[in-house]
Amino acid sequence: MRIAVCDDDEREVSRIGKLITEYQISREEPIDCNYYTNSTDFLCELKSGKYDLVLLDVLMPGSSGIQAARELREQDKNVKIVFVSASPEFAVESYNVGAYHYLLKPIDADSFFAMLDRIKGELSAQTEQGFVLKSKDGVVRISYKRLVYVEVINKTVFFYLSEGTVREATATLAEFEEKLLSRPEFMKTHRSYLVNLNYMQAVNMNSITMKNGHSVPVSRKRHSVVQDAWMHYSQQIGREDSTSRVEKPERPEGPWRILLVDDDLSDRTIWADILQSHGCIVQLADNGADALQLAMDSSFDCVLLDVMIPGEDGFSICERFHELMDTPVIFLSCLTESDKQVEGFAAGGIDYITKDTSAELFWAKVETHIRLTKSERTQLHFGPLLLDLARRRVLIDEKELSLTPIEFDILSRLSENTGHIFTPEEIYGMIWGGQPWDGGQTVQMHMSRLRRKLEKAWEGHHFIEAVWGQGYRFVPAKQ
Question: Domain for residue 248, yes or no?
Fold first, then answer.
């Protein structure tokens, strides 16, 4: 890793230098570091691509750190810029010039090391072999090593990655076949699927079980070819796991084991008491680093992860969890804003429980997700409607229906209890937990939007029926 430090405070430069040295020794990571006491000298020596990370003091003689960052960005679009300052007042301005992070002086060693770990991982990922994809989320790089399998539905190609992310592109499978099949680890199992042999768990009569629990079809003509190829490839590479996950002893039978990550002692105690009262074994951590270490050493049935924890936040830690294991991650947070909940699902969480949720609803959600993960019933079919519970997506007539996280939760809860009439208050309790009852306006608004989307996607059938004076029920279409 190549680092530049630019700060006019010699004491702070000395402190940062010591931290970098400690990191280098503890991680056995080679680091090339240069130090500057003013931005003029730094910019004069700067060349595009010279540094991976630049630490800039905000207030310096001559050009400020913000001004230096603007000039730096003109030469290098990819360098990670981290501002250091004794005051948070420049934080917003710093992100306007593409800051990677904003650290307050004196720099906390744990936070600094966690940030360097994250940058190291990102730099490592950039060097992996792969290809550039023009996806619906923009231009992204797909790593061959992290690509589990490829699926095409109609004119959309889905790329399933090991960390749980799914990238989509409007294309045909043929556009990627030559590129992927030229590599020994990829094979076509079906006219609509390409798989990475490294991630295969078992070959069944008409499907493949992947290590992430997903099932991929195998055509009858290709079954024996796929089976032979997998066995041959596994023998060649010693069946090494290409995701580099830490090998742990198999999860023993018995009570569910749950990892609870929360730095608030009172909240941690409350949640742990609820879990233990239902017979769970609970292990505790108050920061992401300790939680990741526990995940490497033990197996868990579920991870409950606070968003606001010391060091890396819960969203970042969740992404790193998925590199280690396939355990479901549920976020716990006092942040109730919808954009935070969306961010949680984007990071790979399967649910987002706010801390005002009642004990009954909290346990119901945890229990449901664990049972669902252990069950093979990860998809619900109702005629043209498919609910993919593991990937949290809905397809009608093989076309994906765009739903908000709340709309998906409502639909999945109602569909799991076909025919049962749920009152608006029951729905409110299931989705919004312990928040004060608002008389039904919130439920009515979300149900109205959800029903319109369903009816527009499949005319002639109301999947959710409004029962006058009682509530709502799910009505499946005929198979």
Answer: no
Domain extent, residue 290, equals: 257-372
The C-alpha atoms of residue 421 and residue 13 are separated, in whole angstroms, by 66
Query: What span, in angstroms and rounded, lies between the C-alpha atoms of 312 and 431?
Result: 28
Q: In this predicted model, what pLDDT tens digit does every residue of 160-185 receive, in sequence order?
A: 988 788 899 999 998 898 889 888 88
User: Is 251 a member of any domain?
Assistant: no
Measure the CA–CA gap between 325 and 322, rounded to whole angstroms.
5
Whether residue 380 is found in the same domain as residue 364: no
pLDDT of residue 377: 53
pLDDT digits (tens, 9 = 90+) for 399-456: 888 888 788 888 888 887 777 888 988 888 878 766 778 888 888 888 988 998 998 8
Burial environment of residue 301 by CB neighbours within 10 A (0 to 12, 13 to 18, 19 or more) = buried
CA distance 28 to 49: 23
Tally the domains of the chain: 4
**If DSSP codes are grouped into helix, strand and coil, which group holds residue 429?**
helix
- The predicted structure's pLDDT at residue 305: 92
**Secondary structure tally for the chain: helices H, strands E:** 15, 26
CATH number for the domain that contains residue 75: 3.40.50.2300
| Sequence-distant (≥ 6) Cβ neighbours of residue 124 within 8 angstroms | none
